[in-house]
Amino acid sequence: MTLDSGSITVREQPLTTNVTVVTRIGRTNAATLTINGGLMDVTQLLVGETPGAQYARSQGTVHLAGGTLSVAAELSIGTGLGCTGMVDVAGGQLLVANQQTNVMRIGDQGFGQMTVVNGSAHVGNVSVARHDSSRGLLVLQPGGLMTCSDDCSIGRFSGSTGLVFVAGGELAVTNHPIWVGREGRGQLVVSNGLVQAETLNVAVVPTNTAFGLLTVGGGTILVSSNFVLGDEALSVGQALVADGNLSITNGTGTAQLTINSGVFTLNGGELAADHLALENAAGRFVFNGGNLRSSGTTVSNGLPFVVGDGIKPATFHLNGGVHSFANGLVISSNATLSGCGVINGSIVNHGTLIPAADRSPRRRLARPVLTAAPRVLLSTARTATPTSSNTKNTLEAPDWLRAASANGTGGPLTLTDPTANRPRCGLSPARGVTPADPPMPTRLIVVRHAETVWNVEGRRQGHADSPLTSRGVAQAEAVARRLAELEASALLQQ
């Protein structure tokens, strides 16, 4: 059947939750509904449904190329056991009402697939693979938009298997959670486009039937509340970020990445969180490469927190706050620790430390504070068993921690804590860190005043203020340009 214009209405008048008017596409064999324009308004739509086991291979297909398909109650794709349902939104809009009692199912008991490209779907609660033995697939491609005004569950109940693949477009669940492996098996793969959710839960329901996998190979995921990986006892979750952006932040700075169990692997791309919590022995964070930004960190899972695999570039940037490592922090070769914040725990450094500096009035990040009662240990070697004394770590910071290079010998570099007077990074009064063994060099740049008229005349001028020559003006301007390129901690004038 094809609708090019006009309207088709198949529904109760008025609407009721006791649905008796049902539209079925592909009940006993194969059937297709194509909408190129106009309006089709139905109460309940079943795509790929069977009246009995003898019709278990029925197939239903809906092509939406334009116009509007409005479903007032339930949309089920792949309704019957063994049946197949497919919905393609290649234009126009799909509207599924959210009445709190109806759930859109992509893979109800059979196999269901929905593709959104160059069109939009606005739905309520959706399950991608809902019941035992069901399989569901949701694909978003460039130009496609899908909004959910309620939960989005991938692998809803035990025995279900669901996959959401975002290759472009946008999936927005802005005020509700996305469940990846809620009680069944679920996967969310993002290679392009945008995904937004209030909460992202990956295998967090305490049941041994749940498995969740998140893979980010590109695009952007924005989580405004919490990202939770795994349950503390039974469920198994995994997350992999190879490229793209995963942001777990909000305006109040209360969003948190919590790893209860399973493995979160960062191989590349960008990961940002208001707080990172890794407090259970069953949870691991494997930081091989890429960039991690955190405003607060708590690691007490029995393992040191290791930045980088020693091969790929990796950066751990502190956006202020307190960062606690019960078993220490290790900066590997080709890895960098940067930014500003309070660090509680020992540090073994084989890479580069770049504390923040006040570069301009717009960026007033003060010096970072490295603390560990009573001291912090920094190894200046790039490897655990160095064979050369020529290895260097570059430390860039304002006055109290400024060095062009520090030669590594494999021995510990002890930073003591003699003062605690000025607040740093907007935190509680910070502790200054003064090098004790060996002393760090301070770079001192001395600039003589530019050429004056009395210099040319060979006269001693002392404190007299002789005007600059044209050459002196050029010299002063050249010095100003050069000093503007430096990050000076202090400027003294004679």
Q: Your description of this structure?
A:
By secondary structure, this protein is mainly β. The protein has three domains: 2-307; 308-443, no CATH class; 445-494, no CATH class. The chain is elongated. The strands form four sheets. An eight-stranded parallel beta barrel has the order 21-22-25-28-31-29-26-23. Strands 30-32-34 form a three-stranded parallel β-sheet, with no helix packed on it. The chain has a three-stranded antiparallel β-sheet with strand order 37-40-41, with no helix packed on it. The chain contains two helices and 41 strands. β40 (412-423) and β41 (429-437) form a beta hairpin.
Please tell me what the overall shape is: elongated
Tally of DSSP β-strands: 41
Poorly predicted runs are 358-440
What is the rounded distance between the termini?
A: 90 Å
Major sheet, described briefly? 8 strands, parallel, barrel
Approximate helicity band: under 10%
Number of discrete domains: 3
Task: Summarize the topology.
Elements: E1 2-3, E2 7-10, E3 22-25, E4 30-35, E5 39-42, E6 44-47, E7 59-64, E8 68-71, E9 75-77, E10 84-89, E11 93-96, E12 104-106, E13 111-116, E14 120-123, E15 126-128, E16 135-140, E17 145-148, E18 152-154, E19 161-180, E20 185-202, E21 211-229, E22 236-248, E23 256-259, E24 262-266, E25 270-273, E26 275-278, E27 283-287, E28 290-294, E29 297-299, E30 305-307, E31 314-325, E32 329-331, E33 335-344, E34 347-349, E35 352-355, E36 369-371, E37 376-379, E38 392-395, E39 403-407, E40 412-423, E41 429-437, H1 453-457, H2 470-484
